[in-house]
């Protein structure tokens, strides 16, 4: 059974204090989640764009939140792979939105995709596909 | 013509002040580079391991430094894709080593792989393959 | 300007006789294409499932057709990368459907995703993200 | 315990008759394998080059053979993901060589990389990273 937005927010606050401060859960439901990431100067690259590793962080959190929303509060799920394609320069002065949809929820592997956006701009800035391993229960 | 280690260090210090503080260039030569990344508490995840986005950052910098060492100081090269496979938990109390070797240096695309290690431990913690687009000169 | 379905079908028949025999274009429009692939015994694996390389072939053709439908008949576009995630066993006795949507159409690089299905079954069997390089004109 | 070259050859001949006819095992040992693929006109693309899906097939077989050589004859291992980067045009009149090295052999997941070559030419034509899921025993 999946966890609620309030349960996941409390769980992340406990487990990932630092990331949590910048990552807000927009929505979470069975097999999907939306993350709003509040960029600051630590996320920027020359030219006022958002760094690739920051985009990966948002994709990773969006996937993790979608998994928690689907399968419940699993602390030991770990990322096993991620493929990112960078499509357009993100705007450094806007929040990053990560929209995740799970493709497969297996017993040991979960696969999902994440579209990344600069808030308020239609064209995506990046796309990610990631895999999490779920520990045997 | 490729840039030297001193030239690249000065270039990164100018362009990427913040990252540079934690990323040291171990070696750089034609088509390869080694990066030593000094982890701190900002890079850690619960369980004392290094976060995935930090590993991606090291892979990205290693690729970029190998490109600068091969093709010279190109400020506008941008990452277009990256695939990471996470193999083992990195030790949070060790530096991360990124060993990059370029596979292909084309006119518009450069492809390389990066093996990531916890310093002093033989088995790699992750593997990355990334692509940079080189702007037309 | 993009090419029409009839133009692309004729072009593929000329250039890729063999593949074309098994690949039918369902739809093609600006930035998207659907391919119907007629599997035969050469595509099967033990257990009556469709082989991974056959799925890659369908993904590759779907991407190529979407590019031709968007940018016109470019014979020299070449695949530079592809990432596939295999989600469920495809049914060996059904056609494979490849649904492609382009994410980015740049001057030198095109990136798209392809969802692969066993015809008539809702859950996708695989997902692909691929990149084509477009030669300078 | 890993299987020998003769055991794996017999196993593949039984399970994958068709592929086996074109795939010869060069070497197999703990965590590595080399495959020699005999291309024919079915593998070619316009311009006399080898198709991407053929390269994926060679990568997939090389990974599978390395797994069998490491963990024994596991018929139910399945590919869960593969990322290919195409580096240079393969020569259509040469065999394709696939050199696989496993990066991680876990209880449920195996990850490996494969370098693909046109036989007798030093520069690789493609690079693949793939993951197999190993069924619980």
TrEMBL record, chains A, B, C, D:
Highest rank taxon of the organism: Bacteria
Tagged with keyword Transmembrane: yes
Domain Thioesterase: 47-120
Pfam families in alphabetical order: 4HBT
GO MF: thiolester hydrolase activity
Transmembrane segments: 61-87
Designated name of the protein: PaaI family thioesterase
Organism from which the protein derives: Alkanindiges illinoisensis
């Amino acid at each position: 059974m999946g966890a609620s937005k309030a349960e996941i927010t409390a769980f992340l606050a406990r487990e990932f204090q630092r990331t949590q401060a910048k990552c807000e859960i927009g929505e979470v439901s069975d097999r999907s989640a939306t993350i709003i990431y509040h960029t600051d100067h630590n996320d920027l690259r020359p030219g006022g764009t958002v760094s690739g590793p920051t985009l990966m962080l948002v994709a990773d959190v969006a996937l993790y939140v979608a998994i928690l929303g689907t399968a419940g509060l699993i602390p030991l799920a770990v990322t096993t792979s991620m493929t990112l394609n960078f499509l357009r320069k993100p705007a450094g002065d806007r929040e990053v939105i990560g929209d995740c949809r799970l493709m497969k929820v297996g017993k040991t592997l979960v696969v999902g995709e994440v579209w990344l956006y600069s808030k308020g701009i239609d064209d995506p800035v990046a796309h990610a596909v990631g895999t999490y391993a779920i520990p045997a229960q």
